Structure prediction request, 580 residues.
Amino acid sequence: MTAAEVARGESTGKGVDRGTGKGRGSGRRLLPSLARLRLASGLVLFAFVLLHFLNHALGLVSIAVMDVVQTWRWALWRSPPGTILLYGAFAVHIALGVRALFRRRTWRMPLNDALQIGLGFAIPVLLVGHILGTRGMHVAAGVDDFYEPVLRRLWPDGAVSQSLLVVIVWGHASIGLYHWLRPKAWFPAAAPWLLSIATALPLLALAGWIEAARRLELLERGRQVPRWPSEEAAALAEWFAQAGNHLVFAFLGAVGLGLIAVRVATRLRAKVRISYGGGRRVRARPGPTLLEISRMNGVPHVSICGGRGRCTTCRVLVTAGGETLPPRGTLEETVLARIDAPPDVRLACQIRPTADLGVHLLVPAEGADAGQRDPYRWGVERRITVLFADLRGFTSLAEGMYPYDTVFLLNSYFEAMTAVIERHGGTVDKFLGDGIMALFGTRPERDAGARAALASAGEMLAALEDLNAEFAGLVPAPLRMGLGIHTGPAVLGRVGGMRRGGERELTALGDTVNTASRLEEMTKEFRCLLVTSEDTLKAAGIECPGGDFRQVPVRGRSETIAVWIADRRETIGDILTVTI
Ligand code: FES
Prediction:
């Protein structure tokens, strides 16, 4: 998938590892491979632990049965391939776990994650001594490490530590499996069963090895059975235990110091570096959104909705440091899901970099500098008032007139209406045949231009009466006009082909425009002068002006809207004196 495809939101998820968010065939195979390696190594270790614990559980039957099954397990794990697989997985899993820890920039994390990390680091403290005391002693001194001698050595002194080891290992593995399985579709249905197994298995393992050890103790009561076959073996075991402890604590100390060093370095660095590709880099202190950082540093960055998380035009492909970002929030997730954006794509207006970040802007920013000078260049969402006006029956009226007179009349009408609209701060968006679409509140206004639109409507009707008086001898019948007004959010932007001056026309798009147009059409049905929505009256601060209120269905909207119908020009002027 190319960046261009991502930019167009053309990803279908094919070829993308949803778990890691990296595309197949990209130059960044390393990270997903490491993630899979960590999972695979964890699964190998889990398989070992599962068989080991099941073997322990057989202690509820007898030590002899435990040993029989143990030989089968050894056939697997003590074979050369099994040994390489097991200890390789152990080393890889620890290395990747430490790597993940060093890549963390924050210690704020869900309880599950914290528990998994804590348990993960507790494992070597108890496990290394166990490994050295069993297989280590077997390899180094040929010491028998079947269940019976091992139980004799562990019971009762090691009862607590070994039981704790069972719980810690199982807890760490269970949380890891939970994270892996939770996204699967079948998981919710299987969860109760899995939880039962996850609870029962360690309990059976604990019960099995403790029962076997106690039975052995009872059997040998009164007899002096040496724990180790010789003095040398006992001394070697002691040395192994101490060396193992030193090794583990040196390792944990090194990791701890490394983490502290990373934290200190991060604090000292203070500013984060944002790389936009093409050699462009900026530095900024953590806090602002990526979009704000772009703006502060003069990096052209498109943001049609102004950073409200609605338009996706600020989206970026995160090429480095994505793991330092918090997961997508609900808003970001919802908006990006609409364009089926891959996991690496983030909204610049929603992310606040706290560490170095590499990004690629996905929406072309050519001309974004101009866009910053002219906010309408890339579109602005704003609450505005839209007015539609249409001459009633003008086509049939014009049929009885000379074309020159028709043009003259229409131009006179448009000039008069434009003058009224502009006098009230509105702009004529376009002329549609004999109709007019006008916008009010295109500059931020508290009432979204609603009062100006209503005042314009009244004056436009008055201007029409003047025109009718002026052209009484020219037109066979007086001109009549219907007006529709609605207030709501719309996207204001420059749309269409370039004009001579190198700029596009400003227009409004969206449901508010369509609704205003439908209200104007309703004036024919209701045989009235004006249909305005209650939203416009409210925006204008007009409450219950009296008269004809109706709830009407509007084509293209699922819900009806409340409208106010005026059939006299004076009524429109009157309502502007009624305020909340
Ligand atoms: S600027 Fe619109 S979603 Fe970010």
